[in-house]
Amino acid sequence: MRRFIRHISVRFALLLALAAVVPLVAYGIVSILSLQRGTRQEVMQGNQNVATRAAEEIRRYVTSNATLLKALAANLQDTSLTIDQQDRILKNYAIQVREFREISLFDEKGAVIATSRIGQPRVEIPRNAPVLVDNVSMSGIRVDEDLLPTTLFAIHLTRLGEPAGWLVGQFSLEEMWRTVDRIRIGTHGYAMVIAGNGELVAHGDPDKKALVALARNMSAHPLLGELRASGGSRGAASEYADGDGEQQLGVAVAMTPLDWTMIVEQPTREAYANAAVLQRQLVITISVALLLMISVGYWFGRQFIDPILALQRGTHALAAGRLEERVDIRTGDEFEELGGAFNTMADKLIELQENVKRQERQAMFGRIAAGLVHDLSHPIQNIGNSTRLLLRDDIDPETRDMFRRTIERELQTLKHFMDDLRNIVKPKPIERFVMDVNLSVSEIVESMRIEGDRNGVTVESRFAEGTLLIEGDRFALGRVYRNLITNAIQATEPGGRVTVSTARVGDLVQIAVADTGSGIPADRLGAIFEDFVTTKRRGLGLGLAISKRIVEQLDGTITVESEVGRGTTFTLRFPARDDRSAQAAAS
Length: 587
What we know:
The chain has helices at residues 2-6, 8-76, 83-96, 174-182, 210-213, 222-229, 268-271, 273-319, 334-390, 397-425, 437-454, 474-491, 522-525, 543-553, 580-586, and strands spanning 100-106, 112-115, 131-133, 136-138, 142-143, 149-159, 162-172, 190-194, 200-203, 236-241, 247-255, 260-267, 433-436, 458-462, 469-472, 497-505, 508-515, 557-563, 567-575. By secondary structure, the chain is an alpha+beta fold. Helix 8 (273-319) packs across helix 9 (334-390) and helix 12 runs antiparallel to helix 14. The radius of gyration is 57 Å and the shape is elongated.
């Protein structure tokens, strides 16, 4: 995705889309948020109004009947009434006010004086019941034998300021159930009434009426806690998940002074259904507009960006070395002029490349010629000197034999030098033999002392005691030693010293060539082992490169440490051979 966004055509299309669609998207987001917030407030307010009206209707229904019972109590307090008259009044009142199932009059001790029932009363005096209104107390809600909710109203009678008994009426709340059943919010929205002790006393959902018979305790309902926290004066509204896990939008209203709570619930999916439809339409409209604008912008962007992409491809081709690449832009504007300038530049680059190649060939031939002269002059001079001395008649046989060996050694050196040049192009494996490092190093040191004396540099050696055996090629390693010692002598001022030492370091045999010369700058140390890289004014720059290849072919390592003005040390390390077969081969 990130690579896709990097394309300028995509960015151009996105720029057009953002410029045109962002205001629409912003408007859509604001509209959706406003719609959601407004719908929520409107639905909550509507449900709150329904709950408030229903709660007020139930409150008036209950309190008005409590007031009627109080009026009856006032009539019964007349001292001139006989017991039969009181009994008749109670029966007539129960017949006229159908909500009262039973009305009984008790004396102060609880004995029955009169009752609307035929037979003994079923009600008892609800002592310590909370006062509902005007000294009329109301007990908790119970379900009678018909599975209908009832409550007891009780009035403490007095005559001439003295207690004179109790008037108790069993009040049916069936009408409250009908009122709750009539409350419907949408298709799935229902109301419920919860008593002060948390018991469910009415529910409008037919599937949940069984909970009323079971006296389900609803104290954990979230709206009850919120209503208590607010003091109950303003009601409560919230969204929550019911016991079935369905999200509900609920409102609660306290029914004072009944200590009941009216709750109206509606599933949010239904409450916000219209808003959800409108929201989906807005989202679809915005998405279609966005896709359309991106598509149109991308098409126009491609028409504008194609010349730039053609120039980009041409630039990549030139960077990859395909200088014959050309662009064909025919737009009749500045892009066409830019394409022509690009093609002209490519033509000039081809000419410049040919000139550079020609100059590089000339410079390379010069360096090779100078390097060959530098690297071959020493062995050729030794051969020439030894040949002239061999022709003298006053040379004894022993000296003559030494000159002959010198000639053979230098000729062998020339041969290996030619082989090394050939190995630069096509390396060949080095033959390995067990060899004594001290012996091979001493031979080269002895031959290089003459070169050191010629330059005023002392060449000394320090060999480890005993035999140091490795697997190597005597002539190849001799080439390495000679390169390192020659470089050390050339880098050392007259009066300086070149020290060649051998040592045993753990499982490795170490050969070090140290000089007291001018040193190598730190920024050039990392490249001195590369082909045609040299710190000297003359030479091919192949000596250290060839030496590194030879050492690595023999499973060894070569490192360098240098400090400008103090000298340089090259260190070779090879795996040691300590087994008896190696010692026997070396001997």
